[in-house]
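Side project, low priority. Logging it here so it doesn't get lost.
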Amino acid sequence: MPDQEIPTRRSDATKAAILEAARARFAADGYAKATIRAIAADAEIDPSMVMRYFGSKDGLFAAAAQIDLDLPDLSTADPNAMGELMIRRFLEIWEGNDNTVLLILLRSSITDEAVAARFREIFADQVLPAVLRFGTPTDAPRRAALIVTQLLGLALCRYVLRLPPVVALTPRQIIEDIAPTLQRYLTTAATVDEAAEYVRDTSAELNARLSSQ
């Protein structure tokens, strides 16, 4: 092994340890309460190393909050089973070991604008393109937004608030109850007037945000 590869591997291992500690700390304490010092202690390194690799708490959070939802390709799916595909993918993420980043975002987004902005990026970069693969493109933002309201509401009640009746639901029950709703959101088109109004409102909001920057 060339000598120059050893520092690189050590650097990668250190960054991985920092990110693992950061995700755990952000998930437990939320973005606002988590500190560089606490994260460094969890990773068993000096706080200066965190700053060296990530520059700031914001930079560390951005790296720790990266996630690929790997949503199903609706353009190749059975048109009658799309809702089931979406809820099954939701359960794969949340019931498995891939939910740490989403827990961080869900717990902190209500009180921290930077975290909320990361949620909006995920919606724009991953959820909306997935929905765009099926149905009328101009209606995709509305359909994608409705899907997110359903899934985030379920995630909040089951994994954060842990409401007993929601926690008690089996994955099969969730699929049977939620899949038809997601299917309806995916396949029910807005009227021409509703779609046009939604596009106008969305465009106006986007232009207002751009003007304020």
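Brief comment: The chain is about 75% helix and 0% strand.
Revisit when time allows.
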